[in-house]
Amino acid sequence: MLQYFEAEIVPGIEPLALAELRQIADDIDHVGTGQVRFRFSGSLSALAAPRMITTIYALGSFAEPRPRALLGHANLHHIVDACRQVCAAWPAATFATLRLSAAGEQSVVMRRLRDELAGHLGLTATDGDGDLLVRLRRSDGRDGWDVLIRLTPRPLASRAWRRCSRPGALAAPLAAAMMELSAPAPADVIVNLCCGSATLLVERGARAPWRAAWGIDLDADALACADENLTAAGLRARVQLAAHDARALPFDDAFASVVCVDLPYGRLVGSHHDNLQLYPALIAEAARIAQPRARMVLVTHEIRLLEQTLQRTAGWWHVRQWLRVRVGGMTPVVVVLERTDHRA
């Protein structure tokens, strides 16, 4: 019976992901940057539910100095049995291919190990994206090897609802963490500015109901993408999509209880020159439509510009949290703001 597991987490959101994981884990053994090891004795299907986790692996350790020893009968049997437990948690034929990921994975020993595992499991060995992913790495702080078996045919971060993607689209676990920081409540009126492919709205919809939700974007292609993803998520009827400039919104003052936005970083989307005008105007317009004590959650890599903007709008917004995260090779910040009682 599998007992030990390892979760990969977007670095910077560990406390939020841990809170979610503690709802199902028996015990947390170790927490590192972007990584949590834990024990779990329930049904493996329950480990497909966390939304702020990038992926989860079953973890086994072998006190062997060389990977060749993993081909020995007892070790190989142990790994095959663990793989079978993972496959059994899913409908038949969910797993068709197997990939072994390791340093030196093209070596004779590694390829033999991959082929032996695939043969025992009745899967096709592949060098591409395998349904069953088995990772091999050196154990931390001791002479041995860790074998990690991904519990799902795709990473947890790969959402079934994502039928359409856009340049710079948020990673779903990060979006889920952002919406958790908004303190979700059923009475929320949500405005998602620069909504793009609607990742924030879909992740919020998976977390809790709302009273009303709007997705705003000037780009018709972005709105079409948002429409497709919201439909796939079963949320389209609950969201109003509209083409508006985020700096001149059609809403009354104090309209929204939650404002969320993935601000353009000025790289894949927009430019730094454009952002110099966009950020101050957008933050000011968000303050106008926000109710007193409304939450605004945003993410950006234009950190200096954001700091300057918030200094100028300090009378409108209190900074409640400031998280530096690492995702996609970048280190943006997630910021949680609270609207003051003072009207702009």
Describe this protein with a few key phrases.
seven-stranded mixed beta sheet, 8 helices, eight-stranded mixed beta sheet, alpha/beta, Rossmann fold
Describe it for me?
With 344 residues, this protein is of the alpha/beta class. The chain is built from eight helices and 15 strands. It has helices spanning 14-21, 73-88, 108-121, 172-181, 199-207, 220-232, 272-289, 303-312, and strands at residues 4-8, 27-32, 35-39, 55-62, 97-102, 124-125, 132-138, 145-150, 189-193, 212-216, 240-242, 256-262, 290-300, 317-324, 333-339. The strands form two sheets. An eight-stranded mixed beta sheet has the order 2-3-1-4-8-7-5-6, with helices on one face. The longest helix has 18 residues, at 272-289. The termini are far apart. The relative contact order is 0.11.
Structural class: alpha/beta
Q: Sketch the topology as an H/E string, one letter per element.
A: EHEEEHEHEEEHEHEHEEHEHEE
Oligomeric grouping of the chains: single chain
Helix tally? Answer: 8
The value of Rg in angstroms is 23 Å
Overall form: elongated
CATH homologous superfamily descriptor of the largest domain: Vaccinia Virus protein VP39
Biggest β-sheet description: 8 strands, mixed
How much of the polypeptide forms β-strand, as a percent range?
Answer: 25-35%
The low-confidence parts are none
CATH hierarchy class name of the largest domain: Alpha Beta
Mean pLDDT: 94
**First-residue to last-residue Cα separation:** 60 Å
Helix content: 25-40%
Strand order of the largest sheet: 2-3-1-4-8-7-5-6
Strand count: 15
Integer tally of domains? 2
At the third CATH level, what is the topology name of the largest domain?
Answer: Rossmann fold
CATH architecture of the largest domain: 3-Layer(aba) Sandwich
